[in-house]
Write a structure and sequence with these properties.
Immunoglobulin-like; 9 strands; globular; signal
């Protein structure tokens, strides 16, 4: 009987694990333009079709809050503030610019390296039961959107990301 329970628990864990890890993912590849490596780390925001995406190449690091939106027309880059908070840490405010990432996505981008490193450090030190919060305000201080995401499996993704890009936290 006990043996059957062990098999059932193992089967559930094996089936669940790929879905649990889906909240954070890092991809790496060779960068043809810099002869180095580049990486992209994606953290899902619970609101549908929204993500935090960290991009890096040899010496460049950026944070992007991305959402699927093929219809919004952006004629000029617009300034916004992105707010990110991890469990018991202080709120980090990023100066961002709204632009189109590709034909189906828009993004708010920040290149504030020190703040991005602080956020990476905070995310990597959180427990898997913690969440991160993300908010966006316009230049007049009006709330535009908000959401949250899980930090589960962020530590492993951040380690791969920072190792690939030689980022010291």
């Amino acid at each position: 009987m006990f043996k059957n329970v062990i098999y059932i628990v193992a089967a559930i864990n094996i089936a669940y694990l790929p879905y649990a890890q889906a909240s954070w993912k890092t991809t790496t590849e060779e960068d043809i333009f810099t002869s180095g490596k580049k990486a992209m780390m994606i953290g899902e925001i619970a609101n549908s079709h929204q993500y935090l995406i960290f991009d890096c190449t040899n010496s460049k690091l950026s944070l992007n809050r991305v959402e699927i939106d093929p219809t919004t027309v952006i004629s000029t880059p617009l300034p916004y503030k992105a707010l990110v908070k991890t469990y018991d840490n202080s709120l980090i405010t990023f100066d961002t610019v709204l632009s189109r990432r590709n034909a189906s996505e828009i993004q708010l981008t920040s290149k504030e390296t020190d703040k991005i490193k602080t956020l990476l450090k905070q995310l990597s030190s959180q427990s898997s039961t913690s969440d991160f919060l993300v908010g966006v305000i316009d230049k007049n201080g009006n709330q535009v959107s908000s959401g949250s995401g899980s930090v589960s499996f962020a530590k492993k993704a951040i380690k791969k990301f920072t190792t690939t890009c030689d980022i010291v936290l």
